[in-house]
Write a structure and sequence with these properties.
Layout: H1 2-15, E1 22-23, E2 29-34, E3 37-40, H2 54-81, H3 84-87, H4 89-113, H5 120-129, E4 140-149, H6 155-162, H7 170-180, E5 181-185, E6 192-193, H8 194-200, H9 208-214, E7 217-222, E8 225-235, H10 243-276, E9 281-284, E10 287-290
Antiparallel strand pairs: 1-2, 2-3, 4-5, 4-6, 4-8, 7-8, 9-10
């Protein structure tokens, strides 16, 4: 504490802020005063960690005090320029506190009672009832591709594997790609936007529908690389998304609906209990309407 007092005294000389270092009472040492607000020595505890050198300590204390003064000046200016309604912070703080309390209670209720298991039949039912909400905004494709050095001797093997319309020997392609491909993708269950694919594979496509109908496999050389792509499936823009593409979104929607229903049930139950217990009254003019 003695060291802190010395540092404060030195910091005040550095600040030259015009605020005198003085003692307001025998209990609290005042470090700074600004528009009737006081900063006490006890407020500075922890500002200077153990082991910090004297000059760094002075700088930390000085910076903290200066920052405090600037904040008080700003608060004073705001208080003098805002109208009374804007300065009525008690009501705002009460509303904020109430909102936090309700949020925390609802969060605990959801954590304790929400059923988070969503069965496939629920997802399928929601999908069938809301298909119009799942229209695609982009053409989507499922593909397998490899990017090889143009002089790669294994190109015939890759071409044979990728061009097989029936088997798509993904494991063999994946193993071969590990050794010989500069880049590859073999997850045929994953949908991607066609424009995402053309950012990787430099194919010029002017009409997606015509191109995808005519091409199941493409291979071409550009800038020292050979690109091979097998189109497994596609969905044109404005068609309906397959359920596997939107399954996670549907699950999130169902859980959100359950949360809302759980909260509404809780509110209704609490209201009915309060009504039964005669916990509230509604006053209209001089009459009193009691809950029944």
């Amino acid at each position: 504490m003695k060291k802190l007092g010395v540092l404060i005294g030195i910091a005040f000389l550095v600040l030259s802020s015009g605020c005198d270092y003085f003692q307001k009472s025998s209990k609290e040492v005042v470090v700074a005063e600004c528009y009737g607000k006081y900063l006490y020595e006890s407020d500075l505890q922890g500002i200077v960690p153990e082991g910090v050198g004297t000059m760094d300590s002075i700088q930390r204390v000085s910076t903290f005090i200066d920052s405090w003064i600037k904040r008080q000046v700003l608060i004073h200016q705001a208080e003098n320029n805002l109208d009374k309604e804007a300065l009525d912070l008690d009501k705002q703080m009460e509303e904020y506190r109430n909102s936090l309390i309700i949020y925390e209670y609802e969060s605990q209720l959801i954590g304790q009672k929400l059923d988070t298991i969503v069965h496939e039949d629920e997802i399928a039912e929601y999908y069938e009832q809301n298909k119009e909400d799942f229209q695609l905004r982009n053409t989507m494709v499922r593909v397998v591709y490899v990017i090889l050095d143009e002089d790669c001797k294994q190109k015939p093997d890759f071409k044979k594997l990728l061009n097989d319309p029936d088997t798509l020997m993904l494991q063999n392609i994946d193993i071969q790609a590990t050794y010989y491909a500069a880049k590859s993708f073999v997850d045929v269950d994953q949908w991607m936007r066609l424009d995402e694919l053309t950012n990787i594979i430099p194919i010029q496509i002017f009409n997606a529908e015509i191109f995808l109908k005519k091409n199941k496999f493409v291979s071409f050389d550009v800038n020292g690389y050979t690109y091979m792509v097998r189109f497994v499936d596609y969905l044109l823009e404005e068609s309906t998304s397959p359920i596997e593409m939107v399954r996670d979104n549907i699950k999130s929607v169902i859980l959100a609906q359950r949360k809302q229903a759980l909260i509404e049930q809780m509110k209704t139950a609490l209201y009915e209990k309060a009504k039964k217990d005669h916990a509230f009254e509604v006053y209209v003019g001089s009459s009193t309407i009691e809950n029944e």
